[in-house]
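Recall that a protein's primary structure is simply its ordered list of amino acids. Everything else, from secondary elements to tertiary packing, is in principle encoded there. The following example makes that idea concrete.
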Amino acid sequence: MTPSSPHLSAFAIDALLEGALSADDEARAHAHLAGCAACRRALDDGRAARQQFRARVLPRTEAAIAARAGAWRWRPLWIAAPALAAAIALVLVVVSRPGAPGDLPGVAIKGQPALQVFAQHDGRVFQVADGAPLAPGDQIRFVAAPGELGYLLIASVDAAGQVTIYHPYGGDESAPIAAAAGPSQELPGSIVLDATLGPERIYALFSRRPIAAAEVRARLAAVAAGGAARIRDAGPLDIAADAQLSLRIEKTAR
């Protein structure tokens, strides 16, 4: 629930159903539900959709992923029902403070830009840590807190040297992200991990003006040239972002 909304957001309802809220946020959510029939209906709808998904859709989806994982690269997966977006858990990734290009401190400061990454593996929800193992076919989603910065670009480089722009997916430059929409915003779509094993480093670049995706691709290609060890140890990119966040995952076989 954001300060500008009288109701629980779809994200808050999803997180409540998955047990992903903090104790304080869960207490506030239940207090709101006690007096809000509309949010109770949304909660019931989300619970019913989740049960149907797990009983009817998930078994077929897992079989399809297993059959096709070898041919997939990262692809956007649009989720039609907002309640189904909950099948994924969050992580605060490491932040590069503006003005400190050689430094990657471990936590974001309140009010500063931050990124949360959600992951789902074999129907299990878990919190991802920097360097955590994921597998081909796993899904991830992003939740961003822009602070006072108005643009965001998320990109990745993997062990095969493949550079991908995740947000805006395949875009040419950073996308606007409005602080007025709330302190945290769930970015549209989800991503399915491809079959390339090894390290994958994700960068979130927050800025006051758009950053060209071509420039980001060039910087990440230079990282990829150093091989897996360089991807694992890479620091902030030499690029005109006002804040950088970086997260490494390790893709391993199931």
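The longest helix spans residues 37-68. Residues 64-110 have pLDDT under 50 and may be disordered.
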